[in-house]
What we know:
This protein is an alpha/beta fold. The chain contains 6 helices and 13 strands. The protein folds into 2 domains: 1-45; 75-285, Aromatic compound dioxygenase (Protocatechuate 3,4-Dioxygenase, subunit A, Sandwich).
Amino acid sequence: MRSVTxxxxxDVFMSYLSADxxxxxxxxxxxxxxxxxxxxxxxxxxxxxxxxGIAFLEGCxxxxxxxxxxxxxxxxxxxxxxxxxxxxxxxxxxxxSVLGPFHVSGAPALPFGGDMKRHFGGPVLLAEGTIRDTxxxxxxxxxxxxxxxxxxxxxxxxxxxxxxxxxxxxxxxxADGRYAxxxxxxxxxxxxxxxxxxxxxxxxxRHPWRPSHLHYIVxxxxxxxxxxxxxxxxxxxxxEDTVFGVRNDLVMKYTERAPSExxxxxxxxGSITEPFLHVEFDVTLARxx
Length: 289
Ligand code: BEZ
Ligand code: FE
């Protein structure tokens, strides 16, 4: 086509796709390009503005590494990670939420009642619950991969002071589907904002804070794996999570309990002398059909 105009360029783009283009590729590329062209027409995008967009992508690529996933962070703060997640979340299961870039695979086994807090200061949190199927029956042998930041708001992979698997644990539940562990009360923290994604946040007058949370990946044979998070209901950033990860069913009450209420059979049993926090969070997994 030689008579390309600003009005027909989207159709011209589509006409360039070969007849045997995979139908899903045609659908996705067609929709993406149509929305991009509409965006440029709607905003009357200038050369300088489009160049700034390309410079943003180049800036992300320049700092992308094993430890720094700036494109994923861009997807997170633009709401795309959460939107794609919600498009495929099951209504009858626990909601999924963002994975984030700080999960470390291969965490050491954490036995039932085990402790992740160790020597770190801060309030003790006892987290427990049952892993169930959509009929409410426990799922024996389900596995929970748990991770969170230290009280300084940093994940192990961001912090030279922590060992590799600090605040990471992998628990396998027994026949009753129950899990329980102690940790430190999670704190709110900021996503990295010293790169191009930080520039976007600042240009939109947005902050980089996430409400405090615990991360879980829950897996069991025959079930869809679930990547999720739990948030306390009194966190100041609950309604303004910079990565849009909060869902109603993931907001839990952390209740304060007297030391005498701390259960037996846990790693910290007998050593709790201060009030501690308690949260009960059941997880429902959907069958993998
Ligand atoms: C996190 O919760 O670990 C996280 C999620 C998205 C971006 C950065 C961090
Ligand atoms: Fe996190």
